[in-house]
Design goal:
The chain is 44% helix and 16% strand. It has helices at 17-32, 47-54, 70-87, 116-119, 126-142, 151-161, 187-191, 212-221, 240-248, 263-272, 287-294, 305-311, 323-335, 337-351, 356-370, 386-391; strands at 2-7, 37-42, 58-62, 92-95, 107-112, 145-148, 168-170, 199-203, 229-233, 255-259, 275-278, 299-302, 315-318. It is of the alpha/beta class and 393 residues long. The chain folds into two domains: 2-174 and 355-391, Rossmann fold, CATH 3.40.50; 187-351, Glycogen Phosphorylase B (Rossmann fold), CATH 3.40.50. Strands 3-2-1-4-5-6-7 form a seven-stranded parallel sheet, sandwiched between helices. Strands 10-9-8-11-12-13 form a six-stranded parallel sheet, sandwiched between helices. The protein contains 16 helices and 13 strands.
Length: 393
C-alpha cells in the first residue's frame, strides 16, 4: 500500500497536538505494517528533515507552500497536493489535519481533529470562519473515510458538516508509556522556579481557543500564600501580552512563561509538576491531559465534551470561562493531598486505555476501508479496553 501523508499544515515546534499526532502515529503504523510505502508531502516550513524524523523509510516531497500563510496552505491542498500525489502514484492520501485535496485518482482519508471554528466562533472573523468551513467541509465530503479522534469529535462532524456517521471512524489518539524519571538537576535554576513550592504546569500552544489568559486570571484570585507557581510551556507562551497580563494582575513573580521547549526539557517539567491545568475552550481530544495522567500528574481541565470523554473520572473540571471556578480547582489540585493522590491513581488507569499502537491499528483499518477492503477489521469502538483494541490489530 502506497500512502501519501498530507503534512502541509505542520510547522515543527509550532503545531501543537497535530504535530504530535503525526510524529507518534506514523512510526507506530510502520511498526505494525512495515510493508507500508509512505510518501510525506511537506511544506517549506518542515522541509525534508521532517520525513526523516518520522522514519528512515518515509520519502519526502517538499511543496512550495508555507502553512504560515493560510492562502498558500489552501492553494497547496486544493491544487498542488493532488498533482504531486498523482505523480507519486499513491493509492491513498491521509490528510492529517482537517484540510485535504478534493480531487485526484486516489482514495482519500482525512483526520478532522475538531470544528473549533464552529464551537468558538468568536475566535475567527466571519470571512475566515466561512473559508475554514468551506475547506473542511469539502475535505470531509470528498473523503472516502473520515477519522475523528473522539466520539465528541465525531458528533461535531455529523452535526456540523452533515457527514453520515457510518463514514466516520473514531480512532482516539494515543499516549506513550511514562518514561523513566528524567534528570531534573538544574531545571529549576534555568527557569527560575522556586524550591519547595507547588508547580502547576500548562502545556499548550498559545492560540486563542487555548484560553491561556484565564489561567493567569485564576492564579491572581488565589491568596498569595496559597498560590502555586504557574508555568506555561508551548509555542508562543512567552508572548508579551501574557507577560503584561501577569504583571497587571500582580502575579508576574508567580508565573513563568517559557515558550517552546525541547521534548527533554518538557519531560523534566512534567517530572517536577504537582498538577496540570488545561483551561481550553474547545478540544477534539486533549493530548496534554492524557500525557500528564500517564506520568501520574493530577489534572484539572475544562468541562467540555472531549475532555470529559478522554479524562473520565480522573480529572477535576471547571467552566473555562469562569476564572473563580478555575481558581477553586487549582486550590484543590495543589492543596488537597488526598484528592491529588486519588487523581494520580485514577489518571494512571485512564491513560492505560490509550496507546499509539491502538491508534495506528485503527488508522490502518480506516485505510483498508477507504480502499474498499470490506473484509478488513474495522477500527475498534471507542471506549473499548486496551485488550479489545489490541485484538483488532
Amino acid at each position: 500500500m502506497r500512502v501519501g501523508l498530507d503534512l502541509l499544515y505542520l510547522i515543527p515546534g509550532e503545531t501543537g497536538g497535530r504535530e504530535a499526532y503525526a510524529r507518534e502515529l506514523v512510526p507506530a503504523m510502520l511498526e505494525l505494517a512495515p510493508e507500508l510505502e509512505l510518501v510525506a508531502f511537506v511544506g517549506r516550513d518542515a522541509g525534508p528533515e521532517l520525513a526523516s524524523e518520522l522514519g528512515e523509510s518515509v520519502r519526502s516531497i517538499v511543496l512550495p507552500v508555507s502553512a504560515r500563510s493560510r492562502a498558500q496552505w489552501a492553494a497547496g491542498e486544493l491544487a498542488l497536493l493532488s498533482l504531486a500525489a498523482g505523480r507519486a502514484r499513491v493509492e491513498l492520501t491521509h490528510s492529517m489535519a482537517n484540510f485535504a485535496p478534493p480531487w485526484g485518482r486516489f482514495r482519500r482519508v482525512v483526520t478532522i481533529h475538531d470544528l473549533q471554528y464552529r464551537a468558538v466562533p468568536e475566535l475567527l472573523s466571519p470571512p475566515a470562519r466561512a473559508a475554514t468551513h468551506g475547506l473542511v467541509s469539502l475535505a470531509a465530503h470528498r473523503a472516502d473515510r473520515v477519522i475523528a479522534v473522539s466520539n465528541a469529535g465525531r458528533d461535531e462532524i455529523v452535526s456540523g458538516l452533515g457527514i453520515a456517521g457510518a463514514r466516520i471512524d473514531v480512532v482516539p489518539n494515543g499516549v506513550r508509556p511514562a518514561p523513566a524519571p528524567p534528570d531534573t538537576s538544574g531545571v529549576r535554576e534555568r527557569h527560575g522556579l522556586d524550591t519547595g513550592r507547588p508547580l502547576l504546569l500548562v502545556v499548550a500552544t498559545n492560540l486563542p481557543h487555548k484560553n491561556l489568559p484565564a489561567a493567569i486570571e485564576a492564579l491572581a484570585l488565589l491568596d498569595a500564600a496559597r498560590r502555586p507557581q504557574l508555568v506555561l510551556a508551548g509555542h508562543g507562551t512567552d508572548d508579551g501580552d501574557l507577560q503584561a497580563l501577569a504583571a497587571s494582575r500582580g502575579v508576574a513573580r508567580d508565573t513563568r512563561l517559557l515558550g517552546a521547549l525541547s521534548a527533554e526539557e518538557l519531560e523534566s517539567l512534567y517530572a517536577l509538576a504537582d498538577g496540570l491545568l488545561l483551561p481550553t475552550l474547545h478540544e477534539g481530544f486533549g493530548l496534554p491531559v492524557i500525557e500528564a495522567m500517564a506520568r501520574s500528574i493530577p489534572v484539572a481541565c475544562s468541562d467540555i465534551p472531549a475532555l470529559r470523554e478522554v479524562a473520565g473520572p480522573a480529572a477535576l473540571y471547571f467552566d473555562p470561562r469562569v476564572p473563580a471556578q478555575i481558581a477553586a480547582r487549582i486550590g484543590e489540585l495543589v492543596g488537597d493531598r488526598g484528592a491529588a493522590d486519588r487523581l494520580r491513581e485514577l489518571g494512571r488507569a485512564q491513560a492505560a486505555t490509550f496507546s499509539w499502537s491502538a491508534a495506528a491499528a485503527g488508522t490502518l483499518a480506516s485505510y483498508r476501508l477507504a480502499l474498499g477492503d470490506e473484509t478488513g477489521t474495522r477500527p475498534p469502538a471507542y471506549g473499548a479496553t486496551r485488550t479489545d483494541r489490541a485484538s483488532a490489530r
